[in-house]
Amino acid sequence: MTRRQRPRRHVWAAALLAAALCVPAAVADNVAEAAVPKLDQIRVALYITNGKTYNSTVPAVTLSSPAGLDAGVRTPSGVRVWTVVPPGVQARFAADGYNVLLLETADANAAKTLAQALAATQDKPAVFRAAKLGQTVYRVYAGPYATKEEATAAKQRIAAGGAAAALPKGGTATVTGPHRWSAGTFPSEAAARQQADALRLKGVDAWVVATEAAGQLAFAVWIGEAADAEQASAAKAQAEKLVPGLALLPVDAAAPYLLQREDVTGPTAAVTHYAFNPNEQKVWISPKDGVTAVAEKGGRQYRGNLELSRHNGKLAVVNELPFEQYLVSVVGGEMSDGWPAEALKAQAVSARTFALAQGLKYQIAHVSDSTADQAYYGVEEEGRNVSAAVAATAGEVLTANGQLITPFFYSNGGGMTGDPVEVWGQPIPYLKATASPDEGAQAGKPQWYKVAMANGTVGYVRSDLVTDSGTTNAAGLKVVTVKGTGVSIRPAPYVDNANNAAIATVNAGERLVALGTTPESNAYGWVRGPYKADVLLKELNGALASPIAGPLSTLAVSKRGPSGRAVELEANGRPVPVAKPDQYRGALFDAPSTRFEIEETGRYTVLGANGQTRSLPESAGALYAVGASGTASALAKPGMIVLGGGGAVRDITKDPQFRLVGKGYGHGLGMSQWGARGLAEAGTDYKGILHHYYTGVTIAKD
Q1: Model pTM greater than 0.90?
Q2: Gap between the Cα atoms of 285 and 325, Å rounded
Q3: Helix (H, G, I), strand (E, B) or coil at 492
Q4: What gap in Å lies between CA 199 and CA 445, rounded to an integer?
């Protein structure tokens, strides 16, 4: 489920399949009754960290719903609603804790500037607006942190980091915390707010808090934000000095609460910020119309309820919803509602099996919402066809020897699925390398020319942006003419301004030498690079336990597995060690798969007229070609193009550079989603698809 590219939402003609891909109907229709685990409600972590396999969290989460939200606490005895968020209004929630107070100012712009400087760091900002002594003030915090020690370390990190320039000169950052005093409990929120306003007029920091008294909802006013007992005592003494006769009582550290502040961190209107007790409290969010939007997830909407808590020192956001409803979104996210019904059914059975096989993987959640498990994007990926596929396969799972399997799947096998040993270094009985009809991912993609410019620059241009000039150069290579203005020449044949930015632009009328054509990079076939040797070496060494001694001169696939995937690379003639072959992907700028070739533009062989050869790079110095005029020029100058005896054209460079040319997208184990589509379009039903990719399994039903 890792590193998949989501299938495209297009419908293309089915690929013709070899007879070897067909699965006998008698095998495919084998559905057995078995003791299958049942799960009525699934818990999906939208944000969680377990310190091992998955770490994704935010300091706060911003929620809303078209019809409003109920927010309260969840305990073993049930759910109690404490407050209502109005329809369409956002509210922000965070685990209370320790923070670093960096600035208190009446200047909103100064607070905004500091918050923007912090936003790019690991110490995320929060800006609260409050009244104090009759004046509006803005407080900029970093945090929250689980402990005082973490906050203290953050304070030092901020002072030495990039945001330091935005800190007020002569200012002193202060570590704050959750140690507070109660200035009374009141029968209504309005009464509590009146008391808090009165205290603020006298210079006392005071907040309205929803909590419980004698098991019933109550509203209190709390003061202070001390990081330890000593600071708490000082805050109490200061408040009593400012308000003679003020009666303050210790706050029960175990009591659940929602402490309210006015949050103006974001660019939009102020929102109410609720800080909850991180010590075992679970905040329960129920939408009144069935969906909750999460701003930090791009506004995605989720069915069911949300549970907020602190887990492993960080905010955890868990979406609890009916299991089969969850599967509808997963199937839509992993494939597409417009895909063939039998492919969707195969995905539904695989997704159901995978989720059940995880157990309570994250202690408080069964799965995460990311491709670390399986993609879950909430309501936006639901559809009529995926819903029908889930319903048609209700309760069906994949088993081997009476046990649930882990049905790995991914985007595209590049024509052949992987063998577990060549991917993860260990056998898995129900997974074997097998042919996979994955070409559909490439259908309809535009062609790109590999071209050479007059100055020697080599790159790719989309074919519809040039036209055939009808002429060739002296070597017989086609010359094309640019049609538009500001046309991009890119290192590889795809558009991605972040990772594949233009290396040159050309304009109408300019002539380019065409070195060949290739489809636009896609899940089936792709090109990445070229990478300069020093850049690639840095990337490799950042991922390897044993760094490669530089400089990097050569890099080649030295061993391949049954499906053609790389199981060993050699750099400078020595094996590049990894724990599992699939880790080569991460070491090579997240290569789509390990089924690739490496083109080395700095290594080539020249064959002389007398049969002698000379290979580059070499220590003897540069190799020269002598032209008809007798003028010598370095053969390996930038932009040199060579034409092989068989007519193949290559670009070569003086310094080592490396281009990856591969097939497939993902780890390659189990079901290829594009392959499932290809099989379905060729007439194979979902049971046949599953038996094709998972060897010797049984489709069981509860």
Answers
A1: no
A2: 18
A3: coil
A4: 67
Q: What is the DSSP letter of 153?
A: H
**Are 219 and 157 in the same domain?**
yes
193 Rama sector, left if φ>0, alpha if ψ -120 to 50, beta otherwise: alpha
The CA–CA distances, whole Å, from 528 to 589, 593, 674 equal: 9, 11, 21
Contact between residue 15 and residue 437 where contact means Cβ atoms under 8 Å apart: yes
- Given a cut of 50, whether residue 6 has pLDDT beyond it is no
Q: Which residues, 6+ apart, have CB-to-CB distance to 605 below 8 Å? A: 613, 614, 615, 616
**Share of residues in the chain with pLDDT > 70 (%):** 88
Residues 6+ apart with CB under 8 A from 153: none
Give the 3-state secondary structure of residue 684.
Answer: coil
CB count within 10 Å of CB 388 equals 16
Cβ neighbours of 418 (radius 10 Å) = 35
Q: Distance between CA 257 and CA 272 in Å, rounded? A: 15
Rounded (10°) angle between helices 686-693 and 673-681: 140
DSSP state, residue 463: G
| Together in a domain, 503 and 578 | no
405 three-class SS: coil
The span from the CA of 72 to the CA of 12, in Å, is: 49
Question: Tokens for 77?
Answer: 């005895």
How far apart are the C-alpha atoms of 498 and 492, rounded to whole Å? 13
**Using an 8 Å Cβ cutoff, are 426 and 585 in contact?**
no
For residue 141, what are the domain limits?
A: 92-263
pLDDT in tens, 234-259: 999 999 999 999 999 999 989 999 99
- Out of 263, 289, 306, a domain closes at 263
Work out the angle between the directed axes of helices 384-392 and 323-334 (0-180°, nearest 10). Answer: 120
| pLDDT tens digits along 158-169 | 998 878 888 888
2 within a domain of the structure (yes/no): no
Say yes or no: 588 and 452 in one domain. no
C-alpha–C-alpha distance, residues 686 and 195, integer Å: 65
